[in-house]
Amino acid sequence: MADEVKLYGVPGSPYVSRVTTALKLKGINYELVVEDLSNKSADLLKYNPVHKKIPVLVHNGKPISESLVIVEYIDDVWKGVPVLPQDAYEKAQARFWAKFIDDKCMPAIFKTIGSHGQEQVVAEAHEQLQFLENELNVKGKKFFGGDNINLVDIAATFIAYWLGAAEEALGIKVLSKDKFPKITEWGGNYINCQVVKEGLPPRDALVGFFKKRFGNA
Amino acid sequence: MADEVKLYGFPGSPYVSRVTTALNLKGIKYEFVAEDLSNKSADLLKYNPVHKKVPVLVHNGKPISESLVIVEYIDDAWKGVPILPQDTYEKAQARFWAKFIDDKCTPAIFKAITNHGEEQAVAEAQEQLQFLENELNVKGKKFFGGDNINLVDIAATFIAYWLGAAEEALGIKVLSKDKFPKITEWCGNYINCQVVKDDLVPREAIVAFFRKRFGNA
User: Fold this and answer.
1) Is A147 exposed, middle or buried (0-12, 13-18, 19+ CB in 10 A)?
2) What is the DSSP string of B85-126?
3) What is the mean predicted confidence (pLDDT) over A28-56?
4) Which residues in A lie closer than 8 A to residue B85 (C-beta atoms)?
5) A48 CA to chain B: closest CA distance, Å?
6) How far apart are CA A194 and CA A89, in angstroms?
7) Pick from B4, B10, B21: nearest CA to B63
8) Nearest CA in chain A to B76
9) Contact A92/B69 with Cβ under 8 angstroms?
10) Cβ contact (<8 Å) for A73 and B89?
């Protein structure tokens, strides 16, 4: 019996992008069910009653929510290209950094966007980004996962593509190249990966989104 | 070569309790290094430079931080009693609920505590707790893990023991028995597990802590 894999999401979401990247890494065929977030479908509310958010992966009728939980599920279920390291310690480190990105990095970055690049807010975001810069420096590799992307790279998707669009839309700078050369380089490499590139929305659409949502300080 | 396992923490922390429960479940011998959080040791700052928090597990000299990352590491590194379900879907569900407890439930409960049981804050906390109540109802079992505790039970440690102490200290009620009969019953069962009970600090100590920290509204 063939697997039935549906992904509920919107094309512009960095969290959905995390999941599509994982699906493509494994070569999984899936159906994208596009949601209108101002008018959520009955299915979405049924599949994710706790958060009522996307992405939701539905695998043979069984729903999984929360992007990084979905990504780990994909890695557990489907063999092929690994998304998490095999070694137990390296796996823990990957989970640590993915959690750091979600718990500390992303909120700090969102605040810079919401505050239109206010100085103190940007400084706090820099503090968090510095940990990622150091991590890439220490590893001295192309990706957080080494020669290939892993869970951490996937978790940092927003930084690779969405952040630049937000910066352009609002005329702010958070991820400056001189302060964060490694992350800047990583961002370029990451969005050039076929499995990532295929799932990215057009940049002008994102810029348009941020302008509309946060523009006109 | 014997494993060297150290746990940096302080005895009253619910996050440390998550880790000691997991270690006890696997029968792992470890050395507990008590930290003074007002005067953190050089070791702690070396082992957890990003967050500078407890708990930190150091396994053969290699540190892991973030309590639920540590618990998953313990499950990955040591065989024996399983902490996460074997089935990949059930594993994803366990991760989903553990994340829900950390991201939604516990913050809402903290707000109710720091706001001294203010009505709106309590209502929001109860909204989140209702999801856990429903989950226990649906499962109809003793624990979130079924007949035995799993990652979700461990994640909910604060609710099982610390919340009641906070309620007593501040004369507030969040987890009322009539609203949350299943969770109330679960709390009693959970703290009665040997692997949990062995390392719980005396309740009066926690009550005193909450009184000192948040008392005198």
Assistant:
1) exposed
2) -SSHHHHHHHHHHHHHIIIIIHHHHHHHHHTTT-HHHHHHHH
3) 97
4) none
5) 11
6) 28
7) B4
8) A88
9) yes
10) yes
Amino acid at A216: N
Cβ atoms of B91 and B85 closer than 8 Å: yes
Largest CA distance in chain B: 56
pLDDT at B217: 55
Residues of B near A (CB-CB distance < 8 A)? 50, 59, 62, 64-66, 69-70, 72-73, 76-77, 88-89, 91-93, 95-96, 99-100, 104, 131
Using the beta-carbon criterion (under 8 Å), do A96 and B64 form an inter-chain contact?
yes
Which residue in chain A has the smallest CA separation from B94?
Answer: A69
Peptide bond into A63 cis (omega under 30): no
Using a CB-CB cut-off of 8 Å, the residues of chain B touching A22 are none
Note the pLDDT of residue A168. 96
What is the complex's ipTM, to 2 decimals?
0.96
The predicted model scores a pTM of 0.96
Of B64, B77, B95, the CB nearest to A69: B95
Exposure on the CB side of residue B135, measured as CA atoms within 13 A? 23
Nearest to B62 among A64, A89, A95 (CB): A89
Structure token pair of residue A52: 């009522």
Q: Tens of pLDDT along A204-213?
A: 999 999 999 9
Determine, for residues B89 and A131 on separate chains, whether the beta-carbon distance falls below 8 Å. no
CA atoms within 13 A on the CB side of B103: 14
Q: How far is CA B88 from the centre of its chain?
A: 23
CB contact set of B174 (below 8 Å; sequence gap of 6+): B109, B112, B113, B117, B122, B125, B126, B129, B163, B167
